[in-house]
Amino acid sequence: MSDTPASPASSSRLLDYLRLFRLPNVFTALADIIMGFLFVQGHQWLNTPGGVATLLCLAAASGLIYTAGMVLNDVFDVEIDAVERPQRPLPSGRIGLGWARFLGYELLIVGAILAGVAGLTSAEPHSLAWRPAVIGLALAGCVLLYDGVLKKFWIAPLAMGGCRFLNVLLGMSVGSAGADAPVWLLYYDLSELLVAAGIGAYIVGVTQFARNEAKENQGSGGLIVGAAIMACGLAMLTAFPLVGNGAQRAVSLNGGWEILMLLLSGLLLRRALWVIWRPSPVRIMGAIKVFIFSLVLLDAAVCLAVGQMPWAIGVCCLLLPMFLLGRWVYST
Questions:
Q1: What are the TM regions of this chain, as residue ranges (predicted)?
Q2: pLDDT of residue 172
Q3: Is the pLDDT confidence value at 217 over 60?
Q4: Does residue 205 sit within a domain?
Q5: Is residue 10 part of a domain?
Q6: Which of 106, 161, 274, 287 is spaced 20 to 30 A from 180 at the CA atom?
Q7: Is 285 a member of any domain?
């Protein structure tokens, strides 16, 4: 075995790909999947044949689709980045545009296929084998629609939130059909939809912040709107025990769920108000990074609420590679 260290050129090329993939952010997508999966499966999934394989397929599908979205985002933005962020891998020419386009579409396709495979591996007796494939295709389509069309318009934050909403539902897609849940809701229980919608609305607000990242003289109007939408998303997430079968699932914290969410929400909104008070690109970028990383804490909090403390700790551990990689890889 050779002891020759990797050349600076090869290390730099690896770093370019990690930056193109926004690798630290991918762990937030995995946290969504774990949370969604545990929300609908509870404790019995480890004893269910195919449970581990199903979770792995869902996590791989989510990670690949998310990574594809990051790659295609830079593919479609290459002309803008050539002016505003010329140091990035595509506008600088360190990674070829054609290769990045091919890679993005391939990751998107494989991710959607793995979502369908997850439905086939699930042995949950009342699960809907077709639902992971439907949600996976919808998620891939939403990612492509956002990157290629919608991010240029005012509806962009809603589209980004829709992607995160669908990602959470992908994690929940192998659960049983909700009692009295209509087919047009794909048989999701109202508590499941509210959790996914809360995470999605939170990301709508974060995306509203990110739209002003590269502007030097932006006002606070868009930031205030973003903070208000984030607050609405956090409130929706807090309220999930009040609808559907949420009360049966939130059995762990015995009234402490609201207190925990109040603490997390207060910390996040305090950071938002600090940026609103004196906005600048540097402050906005730092806040966005905090908001994105905090998705892991929100997912872990839901895991804790539904009685999955070991997994809540495990989800929090995803912050470690995020912080380590974040030293070299940007998140926005």
A1: 20-40, 52-76, 97-122, 128-146, 166-187, 193-210, 222-243, 255-274, 286-305, 311-330
A2: 95
A3: no
A4: yes
A5: no
A6: 161
A7: yes
Q: Contacts by 255-262 with C-beta closer than 8 Å and gap 24+?
A: 257/301, 257/305, 260/301, 260/304, 260/305, 261/234, 261/237, 261/301, 262/238
Higher local confidence (pLDDT), 179 or 248: 248
- At 50 the pLDDT is 73
Structural domain span for residue 46: 19-326
Is the pLDDT score of 16 beyond 80?
yes
Q: Quickly state the pLDDT bin for 42 (edges 50, 70, 90).
A: confident
Length of the chain: 332
Q: Which amino acid is at 241?
A: P
Cβ-contact 119, 129 below 8 angstroms: yes
Could you give the C-alpha distances from 261 to 31, 170, 271, 308, in angstroms and in order?
A: 17, 23, 16, 17
